[in-house]
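Hi all, posting the design record for the shared folder.

TITLE: backbone redesign
STEP: 1 of 1
STRUCTURE INPUT:
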């Protein structure tokens, strides 16, 4: 019974046009909605390009168009569905708390990471050569 109420509530939400908490989490919700819409539009384009040439014109044009329209509508409604919207609002509030590094700090941190990775790669390469020499000397590896 609870499952049918959940499905009915979700379907009712998908066919409404209202906005949930209109001014909260606006940036994250817009980016999420556009990302979902772009996914469906790319899927519609791919579907259009991969349908057989001999299929009916209504099918070749109509089906991808239907997928695109339904996808854009779902993208709009999903970001206004209360549980999803509340999550995205919380994401925006957490992102606002982040202290982003300045460009000089970012470059220094990047250099440190790259130097460390090169050092580790060279160290592992040298250890590999040393262990191969030892195993060949003992007779565990044959040439």
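Okay, here is what came back for every position:
SEQUENCE:
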């Amino acid at each position: 019974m609870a499952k049918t109420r959940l499905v009915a509530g979700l379907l009712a939400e998908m066919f409404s046009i209202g906005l949930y908490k209109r001014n909260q989490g606006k940036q994250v919700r817009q980016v999420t909605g556009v990302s979902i819409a772009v996914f469906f539009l790319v899927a519609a384009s791919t579907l259009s390009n991969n349908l057989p040439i001999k299929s009916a014109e209504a099918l070749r044009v109509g089906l991808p168009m239907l997928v695109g329209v339904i996808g854009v509508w779902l993208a709009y409604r999903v970001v206004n569905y209360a549980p999803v919207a509340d999550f995205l609002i919380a994401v925006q509030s957490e992102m606002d708390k982040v202290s982003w590094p300045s460009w000089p700090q970012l470059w220094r941190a990047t250099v440190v990471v790259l130097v460390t990775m090169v050092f580790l790669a060279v160290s592992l390469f040298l250890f590999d050569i040393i262990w191969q020499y030892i195993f060949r000397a003992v007779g565990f590896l044959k040439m």
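COMMENT: Residues 2-98 form one domain.
Let me know if anyone wants the other runs.
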